[in-house]
């Protein structure tokens, strides 16, 4: 805990047996109270490895539901455990768990409600081996979103995120996609509610075992990002209602 606030780390997992132990061993348990792993019906031994590591809170989907659906299960499980701060960390060891302290303290001290670990602040992405086409796409999509959504984020596409309980309780993330665009929709919902989002520099690693969507899925994601941005712009400025931005 920090300031009597319970900290829960959620691990949305899919075929993470080769990287789970490295990730888990770097989690700072001096402040982290609980870890939740949601296995999206992996074809490897992710769940078995999680049990061997002593992770108590393990959920396994009966079928593969998608990255967004995995996060929905993660956040719902964290709220059921009465988490005050929820940190989403990919178990593929692409992001370092050593930043959990910094991210959690910003929320625990009531500085921000949302903190992102940004690969684009500094040179973490390129130094870590991010493919050039992904880097260029990231920069272009971020510029596009910042213009349409009137924000100044370094990137919207990181998978390393920390949230206060109040954010997850106020936003109806169940309305979002079960696919990769969930991440982008969630940030758009947060911006729509006028919360300021903090970013800290995050080194990253791209290697064979780290999860990464292929080119065709990246294109689909990019189109989804553009759609989310346009829907945001129309909803906020022209009252053209979009379901994900309605909390009813």
UniProtKB/TrEMBL annotation:
SUPFAM superfamilies: Nucleotide-diphospho-sugar transferases (SSF53448). GO terms for molecular function: transferase activity. The keyword Transferase applies. Residues 9-171 form the Glycosyltransferase 2-like domain. The keyword Hydrolase does not apply. Coiled coil: none annotated. Pfam families: Glycos_transf_2. CDD domains: DPM_DPG-synthase_like (cd04179). InterPro entries: Glyco_trans_2-like, Glycosyltransferase_2, Nucleotide-diphossugar_trans. Signal peptide: none annotated. Keywords: Transferase. This is Glycosyl transferase family 2.
């Amino acid at each position: 805990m920090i300031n009597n606030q319970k900290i829960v780390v959620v691990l949305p997992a899919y075929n993470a047996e080769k990287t789970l132990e490295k990730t888990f061993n770097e989690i700072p348990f001096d402040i982290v109270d609980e870890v939740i792993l949601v296995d999206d019906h992996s074809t490897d031994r992710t769940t078995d490895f999680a049990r061997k590591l002593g992770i108590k809170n393990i959920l396994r989907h009966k079928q593969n539901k998608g990255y967004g659906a995995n996060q929905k299960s993660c956040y719902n499980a964290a709220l059921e455990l009465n988490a005050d701060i929820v940190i989403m960390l990919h178990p593929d060891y692409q992001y370092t768990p050593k930043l959990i302290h910094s991210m959690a303290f910003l929320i625990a001290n009531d500085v921000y409600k949302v903190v992102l670990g940004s690969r684009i602040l500094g040179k973490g992405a390129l130094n870590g081996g991010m493919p050039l086409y992904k880097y260029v796409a990231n920069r272009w999509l971020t510029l596009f979103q910042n213009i349409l959504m009137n924000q100044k984020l370094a990137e919207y596409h990181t998978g390393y995120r920390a949230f206060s309980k109040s954010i997850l309780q106020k936003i109806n993330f169940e309305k979002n996609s079960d696919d990769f665009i969930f991440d982008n929709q969630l940030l758009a919902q947060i911006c729509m509610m006028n919360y300021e989002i903090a970013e800290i520099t995050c080194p990253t690693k791209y290697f064979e075992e780290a999860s990464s969507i292929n080119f065709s899925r990246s294109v689909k994601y990019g189109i989804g990002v553009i759609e989310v941005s346009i829907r945001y712009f129309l909803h906020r400025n022209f009252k053209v209602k979009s379901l994900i931005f309605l909390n009813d």
